Amino acid sequence: MPVIANGPHLYLNGTVGLDYFDEYFTYPEVVTALAAIDDDSELTVHLNSPGGYVDDGSSIRNAFAARAGTTTIVIEGMALSSASLIACGGDRVVMNPGSVYMIHEPMVSLLSANAARLRTALDEQAAFTTTFARVYAARSGKPEDEIRAMLAAETWFDPEAAVAAGFADSVGGKVIKIEATAKAFDYRAYAHAPKRLVALAKKKDWRLDGADTRAAASAAPRQTQESSMTDKERADALAAELDTLKAQMSASKDADKTATMAAELEALKAEKAKRENADAIMALDEAKGNEAQAKALADAGVTAEAAKAVLAAGKPVAIANGGPTPEDYAKARMSGGVPQPGGQPGAPADNGWAKVTARLNARVA
User: Fold this and answer.
1) How far apart are CA 170 and CA 89, in angstroms?
2) 3-217, what's its fold?
């Protein structure tokens, strides 16, 4: 699980913000976990993340900073991009041996941008950069101009360097072995990752199902998260994983292990089906020029046939079906109000989107 609360310890692992293809944690999930912890108590947050969306990262950082009790953030594996922003919310930051820390400028997505979007993108990126530069400056004690130069260069720190730069307070503490559960990471996704990490990723072929290669855009303001993996590569990876799991089940004589693998197999099949449906929707001729609405329909679980009918009508979902628009869906996602991948619960079902999805699919069934 990406968010685990265990007494005075909170474990955060995976991408910052919603991720359909890997473990992740969101601001609503973290706040829900914090609600069960005494605000005046001491809290240790164990962080291991390649980064993600800045709205979740900034909000989580502020939630930790607002606690009355002492919050210690222990970086177990990596705190990259927006995850390093989260670390700035701790009263004390500990870098465990072997961990890495990275800061860079947030990026703005210009997918399907019109002229107005192009004109405002620079201002948006500048605003985010200024905000985060001030957060890092306050944490490290360095001048804002020096922090801006670090952000522009994409700067990486090992534990000792992070302490020397003021981003962490100490190295060490209780070392937790996480190699068995932490995913390998393709450091080649970053422009200025340490050469030794890039070489290790290349040597061990950390890619596809072994790593999340989308972190190059991990500090982007809330937009469609970019992926360096093509649709075919993602589909091939899922198919290979399914075949491997089937072979393991056939060879296994352990009933419990077989049952676990069967559950994993069903989850993979569901993920594969969801991915194929989303790919089919985005490949529709009707989706051209209507990518935002097409993606919203795909995310909501609308079938490709139903999505085609809606897109062909040339009307927003709200007009055609009496339900929320893609913009409503995005707002609901920000507050945890839509079903999450991996079976995680969303907010109450009265937001209308589930009803719209069922109605759309029923119309072409």
Assistant:
1) 16
2) 2-enoyl-CoA Hydratase; Chain A, domain 1 (3.90.226)
